[in-house]
Amino acid sequence: MTASKESLELTLSRSQIFAKADTSLLAELVQHARPVRLQPQQHLFLAGDEARHFYWIETGTITLYSPSLTGEEKIFRVLGSGTLLAETVMYAQPSLYPLSAQATEDSVVYRMPREELLALTRQSAEFAFSLVEILASRITQAVNRIDLLTMSNSLQRLVSYLLDMHVQQGTAWLRLPASHQVIARQLNITPETFSRHLTQLKRRGLIGHCRNRELVLLDTKGLCHEAGLPVPSFEFLQRRPLANLNGSMFECCNLL
């Protein structure tokens, strides 16, 4: 087994979805993994393609998006190295990718066949039951995000996103997972409005150090008041099921 495949097997064994999989069955799955090298803007798959493989990102970043009738791309999520991609859609019938996946930089991913994953599921009841638990939690994530994107204004969506990152990263010094433009599109905010909100929050002394993908939350209660949101109990948020699954209300496309 190559070093990359050893790393892949270790990563899968530590992931939420494969933590309870039999080690011998997991090793068999990894034996079928094949590397795929992507250049910037190259597609891994398109929405509507038959879903024959799921993937593990070794290096680089992959953007999940859906084209709209207006020609604009709706970005759902940006995935980085060490991340699984499209594992749950393997169980759909018909099995079709609901989103397109495109490399944003030079990337290397490992593809693994759908049939091998289904075989692992059939042979391990414990793995299958664990999978059901995870999918149920991801449905909750999806409901939370739909509620957020349809019921709040753009400033509330931005502040909710920053607070969610605060909980996930465990610090007020945030490292954003993507560029401002990508996050704006993910939150259904125009880049201009996104930039204007950040400037407004910085001028009011609520955030600081808005450089590249880093910023610091200076006053979380003030952020909530500015956006007209109730002040959350961060102790409760850190105990919620989504946090226990390393999840986020903004990651509903984990269902992919």
Structure characterization notes:
This protein has about 260 residues and is of the alpha+beta class. The protein has two domains: about 1-135, Jelly Rolls; about 155-240, Winged helix-like DNA-binding domain superfamily/Winged helix DNA-binding domain (Arc Repressor Mutant, subunit A, Orthogonal Bundle), CATH 1.10.10. About 45% of the residues lie in helices and about 20% in strands. The protein has ten helices and eleven strands. It has helices spanning about 5-15, 25-30, 115-125, 125-150, 155-170, 180-185, 190-205, 220-225, 235-240, 240-245, and strands at about 35-40, 45, 55-60, 60-65, 75-80, 85, 100-105, 105-115, 175, 205-210, 215. The strands form three sheets. A four-stranded antiparallel sheet has the order 1-8-3-6. The chain starts with a helix and ends in a 12-residue tail after the last helix. Mean pLDDT is about 85; it is low at about 240-245.
